[in-house]
C-alpha cells in the first residue's frame, strides 16, 4: 500500500500538468478572449446609453489592446506562455513605454520600491539607445529596446488582423518608441497564479475568499447525506418489499430525477416568493453583522435550508439506493446463509459481517463527494445567488478570464486527484482482499 500511495503521489503532478496544459491550449484556440470581451461590454454599454461617448466606447484603443496582450501573455507563443504560467520560464514584467519626440528623446517612467517616480531620459541614435544608466537600472536588471513604427504596426496586425497595413494608420504608431522592461520568475512555482482581468485581484486571494462558502455547504451536505442515506439504506434493505420500502423508494426516485437547480427554482417560487417562508437569495441578511450570536446562527440556518436541500437531494437518493442494493447482495451471499445455518443471530450477522462488505461501494464514491465539497454546485449557487467557488468558476468562464480559469482548474484537478486517492485507500482498508501495487 505504501508503494502504491507513493506512486500515485508521484504521478499526481504529471496528471495535473497534463490537464492544465490541455485547458490552456483550448483557451488559446477558442475564439474570443479578454480583449474581445471588453469590446463587447463597451459596445453593449454604448447601445444602452450607459456611456456618454458611444463612438469612443465602441472599440478598445490600440494601447489598451497591447496592455491586455502583455498582461495575459497573449503576444507570446502558447508553449512559452504556458511555461511562464507554470513558472518555468521568465516573463516580462513592469513594462513601461515612451515615444520619441522630435528631438529624438523619450522619457519612460517607472516607480521605485517605495513608490516614488523615476524617469529615464533616453536618446535615440539609430537603433541603439543612449542614456545615462542610473544605479537602479542595473540593480533591478532593467532592459531597453527600441521599436520602430513598422514593428509596432506588425505587432498590431498580429493582435488584430483587421488593422490597416499602413503604419501611419495604426493608432499612435507613427513614432518609434523605447520600451523599458525586465524579466522575472513569476508563475505557479513561485506562488503566483496571476491576476483576474475582470476584477484586477490576485486569483489566489479570490479563490481563498470563495472556498469557505463552498466548504460550508459541501461539508454540511456530505455529513447530512451520509447520516441519512446509510441508516435509511440499511433500514430499507432489512424491510425489503414492505409498504414503507415502496413509499420511500418512490420518493427517492423522484428526488433523484429532479435536478438540483430545478428543485431550487421550485422551492424559491413556492416557499420563498409566494409563501415567504425563506429568503430568496444570499447566505446572510443585510443586517447580519448587527445581530446577536443566536440571531446570526438563526439567520444563517434560515438562508442555508433551501440550498442545502438542493445539494443533498440527488446524492442522498443515489447513496441510499446504492446502500440498500449492496446490503441486499451481501445478505443473499453464501457466507450469510452459512452463518445463519450455524445458529448465528440474523441481525447480528448483518451488522457484524454483511454491513462491512456492503459499505465498500459507498466508500469508493468518496472521491466524488470530496470534489463536490470543494467545488460546490455552479447551478445551485447561481439559482440562490451564493458567492461560492462554483459561482466563481462560472463567472470566470463567462468572462473568459484566463487567469481565473486556470487557477480554478488547478485547484479542482488537485482535489480530484486527492479525492480518488482517498477513495482507493479507504476501499483497501475496508476490504483486505484488495491489494494495490
Give the structure's gist in a few sentences.
The protein has 437 residues and is mainly alpha-helical. The chain has helices at residues 2-29, 34-47, 54-57, 62-71, 78-86, 135-139, 149-159, 203-238, 243-257, 260-274, 293-331, 334-341, 346-358, 360-364, 366-375, 378-384, 389-399, 402-430, and strands at 91-99, 105-106, 109-111, 117-119, 122-125, 128-131, 143-147, 177-184.
Structure in words:
This protein has 437 residues and is mainly alpha-helical. Helix content is 62%, strand content 9%. A three-stranded antiparallel beta sheet has the order 1-8-7. It is elongated, with a radius of gyration of 30 Å.
Describe the secondary structure blueprint for this structure:
Elements: H1 2-29, H2 34-47, H3 54-57, H4 62-71, H5 78-86, E1 91-99, E2 105-106, E3 109-111, E4 117-119, E5 122-125, E6 128-131, H6 135-139, E7 143-147, H7 149-159, E8 177-184, H8 203-238, H9 243-257, H10 260-274, H11 293-331, H12 334-341, H13 346-358, H14 360-364, H15 366-375, H16 378-384, H17 389-399, H18 402-430
Antiparallel strand pairs: 1-8, 2-5, 3-4, 5-6, 7-8
Helix pairs in contact: 1-18, 8-11, 8-15, 9-11, 10-11, 10-16, 11-13, 15-18, 16-17, 17-18
| Beta-strand content estimate | 5-15%
Total beta-strand segments: 8
- Give the neighbour order of strands across the main sheet: 1-8-7
Number of domains: 2
Principal-axes geometry comes out as elongated
User: Uncertain regions: pLDDT < 50 for 5+ in a row?
Assistant: 51-58, 165-172
What is the rounded distance between the termini?
A: 7 Å
Amino acid at each position: 500500500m505504501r508503494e502504491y500511495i507513493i506512486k500515485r503521489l508521484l504521478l499526481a503532478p504529471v496528471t495535473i500538468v497534463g490537464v492544465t496544459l490541455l485547458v490552456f491550449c483550448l483557451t488559446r484556440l477558442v475564439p474570443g478572449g479578454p480583449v474581445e470581451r471588453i469590446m463587447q461590454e463597451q459596445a453593449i454599454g454604448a447601445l444602452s446609453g450607459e456611456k456618454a461617448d458611444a463612438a469612443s466606447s465602441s472599440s478598445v484603443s490600440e494601447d489598451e489592446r497591447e496592455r491586455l496582450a502583455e498582461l495575459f501573455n497573449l503576444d507570446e507563443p502558447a508553449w512559452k506562455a504556458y511555461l511562464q504560467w507554470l513558472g518555468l520560464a521568465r516573463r516580462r514584467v513592469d513594462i513601461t513605454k515612451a515615444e520619441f519626440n522630435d528631438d529624438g528623446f523619450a522619457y519612460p517612467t517607472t516607480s521605485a520600491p517605495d513608490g516614488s517616480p523615476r524617469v529615464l531620459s533616453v536618446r535615440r541614435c539609430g537603433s541603439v539607445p543612449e542614456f545615462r544608466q542610473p544605479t537602479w537600472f542595473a540593480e533591478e536588471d532593467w532592459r531597453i529596446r527600441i521599436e520602430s513604427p513598422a514593428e509596432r504596426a506588425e505587432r498590431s496586425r498580429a493582435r488584430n488582423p483587421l488593422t490597416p497595413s499602413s503604419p501611419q494608420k495604426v493608432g499612435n504608431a507613427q513614432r518609434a518608441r523605447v520600451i523599458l522592461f525586465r524579466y522575472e520568475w513569476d508563475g505557479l512555482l513561485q506562488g503566483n497564479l496571476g491576476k483576474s482581468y475582470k476584477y484586477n485581484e490576485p486569483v489566489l486571494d479570490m479563490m481563498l475568499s470563495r472556498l469557505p462558502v463552498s466548504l460550508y455547504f459541501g461539508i454540511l451536505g456530505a455529513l447530512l447525506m451520509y447520516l441519512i442515506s446509510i441508516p435509511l439504506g440499511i433500514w430499507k434493505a432489512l424491510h425489503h418489499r414492505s409498504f414503507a420500502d415502496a413509499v420511500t423508494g418512490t420518493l427517492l426516485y423522484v428526488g433523484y430525477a429532479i435536478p438540483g437547480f430545478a428543485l431550487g427554482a421550485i422551492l424559491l417560487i413556492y416557499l420563498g416568493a409566494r409563501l415567504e417562508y425563506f429568503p430568496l437569495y444570499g447566505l446572510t441578511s443585510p443586517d447580519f453583522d448587527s445581530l446577536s450570536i443566536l440571531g446570526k446562527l438563526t439567520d444563517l440556518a434560515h438562508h442555508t435550508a433551501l440550498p442545502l436541500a438542493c445539494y443533498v437531494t440527488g446524492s442522498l437518493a443515489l447513496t441510499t439506493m446504492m446502500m440498500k442494493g449492496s446490503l441486499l447482495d451481501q445478505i443473499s451471499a453464501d457466507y450469510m446463509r452459512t452463518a445463519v445455518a450455524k445458529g448465528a443471530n440474523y441481525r447480528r450477522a448483518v451488522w457484524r459481517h454483511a454491513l462491512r462488505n456492503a459499505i465498500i461501494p459507498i466508500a469508493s464514491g468518496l472521491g466524488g463527494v470530496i470534489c463536490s465539497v470543494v467545488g460546490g454546485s455552479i447551478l445551485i449557487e447561481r439559482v440562490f445567488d451564493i458567492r461560492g467557488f462554483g459561482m466563481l468558476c462560472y463567472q470566470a468562464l463567462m468572462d473568459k478570464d484566463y487567469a481565473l480559469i486556470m487557477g480554478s482548474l488547478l485547484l479542482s484537478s488537485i482535489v480530484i486527484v486527492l479525492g480518488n486517492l482517498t477513495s482507493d485507500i479507504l476501499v483497501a482498508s475496508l476490504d483486505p482482499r484488495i491489494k494495490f501495487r
